[in-house]
């Protein structure tokens, strides 16, 4: 595979030194719309968890149990004084290829790598922040059942799902739930974390900052300016993590193919160009990627659990996970009835899986599992087919409609770009 933009002269020379020359075959496997035939995320050298192993290893830190990323040259990455990781929430490879073929980001993209399962922010961002897959960090979706608390928690805002919109979970519970070592604690380098001011002080971000210094920002250009200033000062090796969430927000509200999402792409592309210009001559590897991609859906793809009261009656907890990958906790003695109902009424829209089988088959990662992983994925998982989503509502919850969704195993949701530059 020839890296997009490698014919662009100086632009190509900025990143080709870090690129190994060919994406691995397993990172390019075709994904069908039917999850039954879909491959798993690539945890063996072609995914975001392998990218994090490569970054840790490049600083002389512990890469952990996951192999290094096949697409990067580890020795050349290690030779850089600094590494910047720019994570653009919602940036899928297939969409970038379609919406921004002339963008700086795409010209520096060497190919696709995979997100994790499920391909959703809570799971993937935790992988960026800890360097391990959901199998180890236990963040299995937006809503996670925490048995020790006896409730379902929206882990990113750290809010209990009680139906009350502002029912916050006490912050002192955070260390017991977010219990993995943050990546800055595993690398012998200064670490700086750039996140939007509105979320910088959240329990989730505080738990995952580790030894990193948090730099809240109000605007993306401001974050880029602050990052360039920090790295240009010198003072030893430096790891900088920059997170941008607004593409994800626009895609959820308006759709990934909306003008609003394309405007966000223009903003992040300008930020990426500014990073390359502002860091030139500093010996920095600038890596940009996404946590997941998106698909747009129509109203007929939305399934509400309230339309299936007989199914809701069989469950002991609200749906957990996300709309594309929903974990179901079934009442004792009602499993056969649950299986029969899904088979009779939702077979066209969802693939029913025993959740323990997904763990055993490596959907969430490889290696030793988090001790609470099994309780956080329920008895069954509904893998939604095609473009279907499923949702339930608790009394008092504010209702909303997402046009763009993610979490599943379609190519659009699972593959994210790997853009690399040496400046």
Features:
20% strand, four-stranded antiparallel β-sheet, Alkaline Phosphatase, subunit A, 423 residues, alpha/beta, seven-stranded mixed β-sheet, 2 domains, Gyrase A, domain 2
Summarize the structure.
This protein is an alpha/beta fold.
What does this structure look like?
- By secondary structure, this protein is of the alpha/beta class.
- It has two domains: 10-296 and 409-422, Alkaline Phosphatase, subunit A, CATH 3.40.720.10; 299-403, Gyrase A, domain 2.
- Helices cover 31% and strands 20% of the residues.
- The protein has 17 helices and 18 strands.
- The chain has helices at residues 10-16, 48-58, 74-78, 93-99, 104-107, 121-130, 134-137, 174-177, 197-200, 203-209, 220-232, 246-254, 259-278, 309-312, 335-345, 355-360, 411-414; strands at residues 82-88, 109-114, 143-146, 151-154, 159-160, 190-196, 213-217, 238-244, 284-290, 295-296, 302-304, 320-321, 325-328, 350-354, 380-384, 389-391, 404-405, 415-422.
- It has a seven-stranded mixed beta sheet. Strands 12-13-15-14 form a four-stranded antiparallel beta sheet.
- Strand 3 and strand 4 (151-154) form a beta hairpin.
- Helix 11 (220-232) packs parallel to helix 13 (259-278) and helix 12 packs antiparallel against helix 13.
- It is globular, with a radius of gyration of 21 Å.
- The two termini are 23 Å apart.
- The model is unreliable at 1-16 and 22-37 (pLDDT under 50).
């Amino acid at each position: 595979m020839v890296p997009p933009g490698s014919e662009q002269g100086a632009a190509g020379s900025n990143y080709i030194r870090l690129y190994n020359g060919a994406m691995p075959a397993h990172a390019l496997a075709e994904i069908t719309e039917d999850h039954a035939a879909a491959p798993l995320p690539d945890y063996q050298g072609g995914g975001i968890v392998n990218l994090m192993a490569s970054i840790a290893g490049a600083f002389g830190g512990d890469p952990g149990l996951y192999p290094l990323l096949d697409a990067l040259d580890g020795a050349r990455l290690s030779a850089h004084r600094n590494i910047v990781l720019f994570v653009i929430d919602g940036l899928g490879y297939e969409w970038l290829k379609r919406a921004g073929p002339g963008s700086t980001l795409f010209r520096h993209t060497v190919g696709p790598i995979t997100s994790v399962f499920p391909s959703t922010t809570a799971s993937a961002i935790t992988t960026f922040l800890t360097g391990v897959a959901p199998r180890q960090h236990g963040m299995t979706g937006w809503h996670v059942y925490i048995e020790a608390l006896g409730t379902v928690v929206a882990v990113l805002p750290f809010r209990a799902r009680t139906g009350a919109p502002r029912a916050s979970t006490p912050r002192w519970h955070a260390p017991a739930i977010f219990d993995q070592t943050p990546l800055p604690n595993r690398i012998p380098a200064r670490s700086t974390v750039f996140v939007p001011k509105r979320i910088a002080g959240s329990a989730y971000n505080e738990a995952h900052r580790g030894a990193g210094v948090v730099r809240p920002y109000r605007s993306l250009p401001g974050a880029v300016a602050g990052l360039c200033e920090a790295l240009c000062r010198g003072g030893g090796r430096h790891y900088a993590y920059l997170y941008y969430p607004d593409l994800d927000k626009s895609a959820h509200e308006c759709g990934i193919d909306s003008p609003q999402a394309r405007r966000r792409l223009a903003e992040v592309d300008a930020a990426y160009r500014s990073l390359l210009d502002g860091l030139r001559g500093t010996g920095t590897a600038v890596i940009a990627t996404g946590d997941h991609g998106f698909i747009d859906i129509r109203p007929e793809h939305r399934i509400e659990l309230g339309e299936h009261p007989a199914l809701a009656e069989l469950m002991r907890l609200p749906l957990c996970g996300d709309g594309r990958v929903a974990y179901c906790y079934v009442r004792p003695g009602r499993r056969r009835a649950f299986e029969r109902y899904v088979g009779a009424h939702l077979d066209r829209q969802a693939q029913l899986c025993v959740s323990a089988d997904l763990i055993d088959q490596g959907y969430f990662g490889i290696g030793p599992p988090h001790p609470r992983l099994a309780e956080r994925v329920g008895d069954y998982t509904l893998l939604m087919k095609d473009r279907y989503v499923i949702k339930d509502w608790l009394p008092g919850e504010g209702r909303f409609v997402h046009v763009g969704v993610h979490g599943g195993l379609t190519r659009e949701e699972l593959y994210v770009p790997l853009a690399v530059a040496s400046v």
